[in-house]
Specification:
three-stranded parallel sheet; 9 strands; globular; alpha/beta; 250 residues; TIM Barrel; two-stranded parallel ribbon
Length: 250
Amino acid sequence: MTPPPFRAEHIGSLLRPRALLEAKERRPLEDQAIVEAIRWQESLGLKMVTDGEFRRESCRLGFVSKVSGFARADAVGNVDLQQDDAGNVMRIGQAPVAVTRIRRTGPIVADEVAFSLAHAKGVVKATLPAPSYLHYPRGRGCVDPDVYPDLDQFFADVVAVYVAELKALHAAGGRYLQIDEVAQTLLCDQRLRDAVKARGDDPERLVELYIDLINRVVRQRPAGMTVGVHMCRGNAHGKWVGAGGYERIA
């Protein structure tokens, strides 16, 4: 079988079926919906599939809800505003904040991939939000300073969580991971660069930091595992967050 990445791929999320959204007991319907999503992707001729991220609270918060130590709070500064062509503006939603030392206490996506592998004919791709998501929305406010007086220790713990999950993913049979990077693309937008400057962050330093965090994780991936990065604008619900070319991060 040809290894990933492939010429055409599904990025990850699918709209949840209405029956799944309305169900009080979701797990049986989740299983059914995931199997149906896998069969649909295979019927299109895709060489890889995902589970549609049906088990997650969201593509971002699914990570936060499974890692010990995180609470949620509003973003700091106007760094997460979505808007549409009619001028309507809304925040993306609450962001993670570390209120105790963070640690991995169980699978984040490894168990989801194990289920999909039992039903898929080919490659199953796992997806995780990039480490930048744990910092960008709140900057220095991403941690309780009494818990992490030194942000470098927080980032070391973040890398450790990711590396442990990659090893668990590999042990479950997963060989393909997609890291969803939003913050770097948003830092191409001058409006958002100004917003992070206003709260005391240097956008150029943040780009270097976020690249370094991914590299620190990927360097420790298990042998035989492919890791890709999906650059995402953070668009959702018919609204957009960032604009501009990719020159600043290319």
